[in-house]
Amino acid sequence: MAAPSSDTERQRDKDRTRADILDVATREFADKGYTGARVDEIAERTSTTKRMIYYYFGGKEQLYIAVLEQAYLAIRALEAELDVEHLEPEDAIRRLAELTFDHHEAHPDFIRLVSIENIHRAEHIARSEVLAGLANPALDGLTQILERGRAAGRFRDDVDPLDVHMVISSFCVFRLANRHTFAAIFGRDMLDPGRREHYRRMLGDLLIDYLTS
Amino acid sequence: MAAPSSDTERQRDKDRTRADILDVATREFADKGYTGARVDEIAERTSTTKRMIYYYFGGKEQLYIAVLEQAYLAIRALEAELDVEHLEPEDAIRRLAELTFDHHEAHPDFIRLVSIENIHRAEHIARSEVLAGLANPALDGLTQILERGRAAGRFRDDVDPLDVHMVISSFCVFRLANRHTFAAIFGRDMLDPGRREHYRRMLGDLLIDYLTS
DNA sequence: CGCTTAATGTACGAACTAGTGAGTTAACGC
DNA sequence: GCGTTAACTCACTAGTTCGTACATTAAGCG
Fold it and tell me: Which in A114, A140, B137, B165 has the greatest CB count within 10 A?
């Protein structure tokens, strides 16, 4: 056989092995935290061996950083799809907030990785050339929306886009990141599907009432 | 000497030894997380030995649960001091929010412990008889304020106290818990003293605008 | 003042954990 | 075909980490 074609199962595949490790590692780190995750455990769930983790990534820490990079880039790629330029400012804000709301709910592992990284004071993000200062497409969209609302005299003129982004993130992140202690203390599951629409609408109301006051 | 008096330095003191261990352990667990914390490290920073940790607490996990219990009870004791019955509903809401805002900022270790516990899916809180279902005095106060505001026709009548509490917590917790990744990605320190008043006021505005819309 | 026991210190071990040394085999260009 | 090298396997180790067996000493009581 001359060259491996797409329908041929290659026994050795650099990309597939790497992707396999990264995928398993993402789940393991998100599940157990950086310190709690075990390299041997990751290796076992992989279709390859522990030696390959060191071959491709160098060590536990570099593997964890690679996991963070992949997770952030994937989320940012999703955010870049945001298209709200055709909407009225109020509707655009709601749409943007709901996009974040939905994204967070759809990617609990990412939220867990962020929480874990904050426990470690973002030292790994700081060490990553890819992530340090990675721009946020959603923030650019938000800036434009606020500008349009302000120009139309419908939004107050003393709001910083990053502050609004912070409010949206607070709400959406808290709902996922703190759901366990919240449920244990107050007996309410913030992820209960029956309350989903209520929270989604509430976030929009909160933002619009503030911006138009 | 017959009995140990208060001015006598007792060489053996059950309470002091226990409190010492608990204090050191709180800092260690908040700093490194449950898995990251080392029993030997805690012992070393104590004025006693590792053997005593096992003598008084039984093991790493029970020590961690004891740390959580003490931290939660201390915070709840502070919250119980809330006195807003003499204030107008709007001012009472702001006061309550600012109290939470200040408390969170003053107790970063507590916020870290909560984040860590959420990573572990609150399994230790669930195992603690003291903490499971521990009532929140601040929530009772909030319920009364909302009721008064609603009766006076100044607050909307479709708000759940726990939802308002969630919004307050989201904002205050996010500011502390996610400050590192937020700073790494956006270059803004949410704990910058120069922005403190801005955030404090913003939270109040956010709540009042929503409740009075 | 000696007896009892709660409180404390010392030394150690079994299991785990990140990482590696050295050899092996499949893929691919020539 | 064949040599080179990238991809891969296996067995192993040095250091760590929770936990404990055992010895010891201070405190209080009759």
Answer: A114
For residues A207 and A93, the answer to whether their CB atoms sit within 8 Å is yes
Tokens for B50, please give them: 């590792």
- Helices then strands, each counted (H, E), chain B: 11, 0
Q: Which of A36, A10, A41, A11 is nearest to A24 (CA)?
A: A41
Q: Which nucleotides of C are covered by protein (CB under 7 A)?
A: 6-11, 17-22, 26-29
Dump the DSSP string for B64-103. Answer: HHHHHHHHHHHHHHHHTT---TTS-HHHHHHHHHHHHHHH
Nucleotides of D under 7 A from a protein CB: 6-11, 17-22, 26-28
What pLDDT band is residue B10 in, cutting at 50, 70 and 90? Answer: low
Rounded-to-integer distance, Cα B135 and Cα A18, Å: 48
pLDDT computed for residue A80 by the predictor: 87
What is the distance in angstroms between the Cα of B69 and the nearest Cα belonging to chain A? 12
CA distance A92 to B179: 27
Residue A132, pLDDT > 90, answer no
pLDDT in tens, A138-156: 899 999 999 999 999 999 9
